[in-house]
Amino acid sequence: MPKLNRETAATGPGRLNRTDLDTVLDTLDEAIAQSTLSDTQQTVCLLLVQLRNFTRLNLSRGYEIGDAAVTELGKRLAGQLGDRSRVMRISAGKFAVILFGLKTGAQAILAARKIERLAADRLEMDGDKLRLDIAQGMALQPENASSAEELLQRAEMALAAARDKEDFFATYSDEMSEKLRSSSHVESSLLDALADGGIEPYFQSQIDLRTGNPCGAEALLRCRDKSGAFLNPEAVVDAAERSGKLLQLTSIILNVALRHAADWPRDRGQQRVAVNISAQSLREPDLVDLIASCLSIWGTDPDDLTIEVTENALIDEPEKCFDLLRRIRDLGVRVAIDDFGTGYSSYSYFKDIPANELKIDKAFVLNLTTDLSNQKIVRSVIALAHAFDLEVVAEGIEDEETYDLLREMGCDTGQGYWIGKPQKADEFLHDLEAEKNKSG
Ligand code: C2E
Ligand code: MG
Ligand code: MG
Asked: What are the strands, taking DSSP E only, across 296-377?
């Protein structure tokens, strides 16, 4: 049985010493060796317990309060988990709890529940009751890992998953490793593409449903990996956010989109280009300057550019986002609310929203001709939008019946595979010129 030295877990009057990771790994090694020697199959569990509101407490209430909260959490863990456990503080607000000699993984889940209950009791401090807001990540040996290092790495993955889900607990699963592999593949492919000039938007035609004429295109990010396969654009944007390359990516898409749009024939009507801006880009203080300088570099009429932001991007801090959208509109650029209908915005939002267009999400459009409730939703969004002088764009038009129905409903513009799939810039230009010659 590994030696249980609980004094190192909570020493002194409430003070917790930090344990280095080598010691944690040594303890895990010992526990694994012990369970392998046992006659019956035994499980070793590593639970990483993190005080989620540690930084917030430090910043809002001062370091003493933050420290007191961690110390209290450590004491509760070290004092209540029984003899077959070891608790170590491994970083500022994080503990490693090792449970050994378990007969089943279910016992580990019970321990996690107990830890949740231990943290649930509020801590009285200065006449105030503090919440110990924790997240836990769990991995088991031999079920999830064969070595101490693997166990630690996998418990970290589970903890990150719990934090992402804003849940109190997650247990390691192979999908977490798969997700990590895939996101690092996307990240390294993005970095290669940024270095080699391998980012190119495709263009998807948009049609004015009132006249049937092309009225522009949406620029859609396309990035390939080394094998030449396209990466999911949303995953690429996430990777750019993680690796601090978002503004660079946005700048490339904007510049390339405006450069191509400058060549589009406009003698038979306006051709706008729409560029997507992610939720995080809306928090970039330099975004408005970036848009202004791209417009000036390519000599673009601001009214020919539409910036698309998703409805969900506006949910956190709507006032700040609205303010930024107003500054974009002050440049003369149009704003579209993308994927409209998938978020949780209230109707009161319509009166303040600094936008020119609502783009109805394709989820409502793909099955429009057969789904009566989607028809009701689309009709009422169109009526409401028009009442507030907003144009309506439908995305995901895949057949002629849907196109006709949307026209009949009064939808202003549309895009979708039936009108045109996203194309390389030169193919899009070729088709646009062919269309012009046909109708000219
Ligand atoms: P989105 O902006 O809503 O773009 C529309 C998506 O619907 C595109 O997917 C387009 O290819 C797809 N689509 C268009 N017509 C149809 C149709 O008729 N049927 C179906 N089933 N799908 C259709 P894509 O290109 O995979 O882009 C996915 C999302 O990635 C975009 O959704 C947008 O949110 C994001 N994205 C794309 N490019 C960029 C970019 O440059 N920057 C940022 N921040 N996000 C981008
Ligand atoms: Mg879009
Ligand atoms: Mg959309």
From this structure: 305-310, 334-340, 357-360
Number of domains in the chain: 2
Residue whose token pair is 């490339």: 252
Assess whether the C-beta atom of 398 lies below 6 angstroms from ligand 1: yes
- Does 243 map to a domain? yes
Q: Are strands 123-125 and 134-141 parallel, antiparallel or unpaired?
A: unpaired
Alpha helices in 231-315 (DSSP H): 233-242, 246-261, 287-298
Is position 178 within any domain? Answer: no
Helix, strand, coil % over all residues of the chain, rounded to 5: 50, 20, 30
Residues 149 and 261 in one domain: no
Domain boundary among 151, 172, 193: 172
Are 158 and 201 in the same domain? no
Q: Is residue 272 lining ligand 1, measured as CB closer than 6 Å?
A: no
CB 311 near ligand 1, within 6 Å: no
Are residues 107 and 158 located together in one domain of the fold?
Answer: yes
pLDDT in tens, 153-198: 999 999 999 998 888 899 999 999 999 999 999 999 999 999 999 9
Question: Domain range holding 122?
Answer: 6-172
Asked, for residue 308, whether it belongs to a domain, the answer is yes
The model's pTM: 0.82
CATH number at residue 68: 3.30.70.270
Residue 306 CA to ligand 1 center (angstroms) comes to 15
CA-308 nearest atom, ligand 1: 2
Kindly give the distance from the C-alpha atom of residue 200 to the centroid of ligand 2, in angstroms, as a whole number.
16
Distance 34 CA to ligand 1 centre (A): 53
Question: 422 CB less than 6 Å from ligand 1?
Answer: yes
Contacts for 293 with CB less than 8 Å, ≥ 6 apart: none
Instruction: Return the H-helix or E-strand segment holding 55.
Output: helix 54-61
Query: Last residue of a domain, which of 172, 201, 230?
Result: 172
* 256-297: pLDDT as tens digits: 999 999 999 998 889 999 999 999 999 888 999 999 999 999
